[in-house]
Write a structure and sequence with these properties.
Order of helices and strands: HEHEHEHHHHEEHEHEHHEHHEHEHHH
Shape: globular
Number of strands: 10
Helix content: 40-55%
Mean pLDDT: 86
Radius of gyration: 21 Å
Number of helices: 17
């Protein structure tokens, strides 16, 4: 999946060395108030606007980060029809779900807001992150330490991208809820860096470093060690009540039942004293299923909105930014056996594509159902599911160029420019997005 040039060096130099992940989460539980990075906090802060816009950023290294950034720029430059003043569609975004490479853009925007348009390209997108990590890895002083490759990455991201910011720092005014997703290596369940999930660990998320969460979301197994968090002993009944309600709501729905079963394992503090998180793309490379699970395990979108006394929106919008590529393969042109990396890449791509297709079908049907559940007499909710990927690029040469962009953390300026431009082009040309703008303009009148 990730074509790092130093894979062989990693395996040879560090394959037999024991390394230990740093643990930086603290015992909780957090107070259930506006100081916690939780669903309740953001439900209280979300406006009763007509537009509820959600974004989902996929994995794919810097390619995913740059494409997502291009979509953010396009949303910023899209005025809301009929709005007073200079209000853009980006202001209507209330939540962003992300995995892997997409988590860098989501977290930076959640932390800094519009400042992302001033320095993010220089801070991250145009940096040779891959080269910097290789340099650290090849430093002889790092070969004999107990800190693993992931701890080096965390240190680098803290120094160059996120500083010492924690989730408490993402509670600034007018910030969207950013759901950074990782995969629990032990149980294979999706895990979202929200206080609602940290309650299952009896831990307080507010002091947890952003850099560490993003590293967990992008920690490709084998190339990077898992990010480790401590699972603290029982600290009240909040988690138990959540799991009991979730189990009841998941009854008869196999995938949700499997998710709840995985989350319930955190209750076994003796067997699961430490949880190991890796790349969120393993369990959902689109970053969409976490939104689905949060909504469904909370009782459904109508019940959840009613619990928090939120006026149903007129428009329910989900924009999925998928940076997956469809590169041309040459293995079928000869009898030559493909290399191991090519075989692994092809198998991963097939599995990823099939799972993405299933995810899109699930969410498309769910969006329709959620809109119906939210609709009330005299106030209907219309769904808009906007799928952005490279298939939407009309120019053949441009599409080929984008599909040949590697999954890495080191891209050329030309590649970064092309991806940013593609993000805006895909959004502006999408038929469902144009329908959204047309409907908003018609209502504004």
């Amino acid at each position: 999946m990730y074509r790092y040039a130093f894979v062989g060096v990693v395996l040879v130099l560090l394959g037999g060395c024991a390394s230990y992940g740093g643990v930086e989460n603290v015992a909780g539980p957090a107070a259930k108030d506006r100081s916690s990075y939780s669903l309740v906090t953001f439900q209280e802060r979300w406006r009763t606007d007509d537009n509820a816009v959600m974004l989902a950023f996929s994995g794919g290294g810097t390619r995913a980060a740059a494409l997502a950034y291009g979509v953010l720029k396009a949303l910023r430059d899209t005025p809301v029809p009929g709005s007073a003043g200079a209000r853009s569609l980006l202001n209507e975004v209330h939540s962003i779900s992300s995995v892997s490479g997409g988590s860098f853009t989501a977290a930076y925007y959640g932390l800094h807001g519009d400042r992302i348009f001033e320095d993010y390209e220089d801070v991250f997108l145009r940096q040779n992150v891959q080269g910097a990590l290789i340099h650290r890895l090849l430093n002889p002083f790092s070969w004999f330490g107990r800190a693993g490759r992931t701890e080096m990455a965390v240190s680098y991201y803290e120094k160059t991208v996120f500083g010492e910011a924690t989730f408490a720092d993402m509670l600034g005014p007018d910030r969207p809820l950013v759901v950074i997703n990782a995969s629990d290596l032990g149980e294979g369940v999706r895990f979202s860096f929200l206080q609602d999930y940290f309650d299952l660990l009896c831990s307080d998320l507010s002091s947890f470093p952003i850099a560490r969460a993003v590293t967990a979301s992008s920690a490709v197994p084998v190339l990077f060690n898992p990010v480790v968090v401590q699972n603290f002993p029982a600290c009240g009944d909040r988690a138990a009540k959540f799991l009991a309600a979730a189990r009841k709501r998941a009854a008869g729905r196999p995938e949700l039942e499997l998710t709840v079963e995985g989350l319930e394992t955190f209750s076994d503090h003796d067997k699961r004293q430490y949880i190991h998180f890796v790349d969120g793309g393993i369990t959902d490379n689109l970053g969409i299923r976490s939104l689905y699970e949060i909504i469904e395990l909370s009782g459904g979108i109508a019940e959840y909105s009613a619990q928090h006394q939120r006026v149903p929106p007129k428009r329910l919008v989900l924009i999925s930014v998928n940076a997956a590529t469809d590169p041309a393969r040459d293995m079928d042109r000869s009898t030559k056996q493909p290399s191991v990396p090519k075989v692994v890449g092809a198998v991963s791509d097939v599995q990823l594509h099939r799972y993405n297709v299933d995810t899109i079908a699930l969410i498309k049907a769910s969006m329709e159902r959620w809109a119906q559940e939210l609709s009330k007499s005299g106030r209907l909710t219309e769904p808009y599911f906007i799928l952005l990927d490279f298939h939407g690029i009309q120019d053949v040469e441009q599409r080929l160029f984008l599909n040949q962009t590697p999954t890495s953390f080191s891209l050329t300026d030309e590649q970064v420019d092309g991806l940013i431009e593609a993000g805006g082009e895909l959004l502006r040309n999408d038929p469902e997005f144009r329908r959204l703008l047309s409907d908003m303009a018609a209502e504004a009148g």
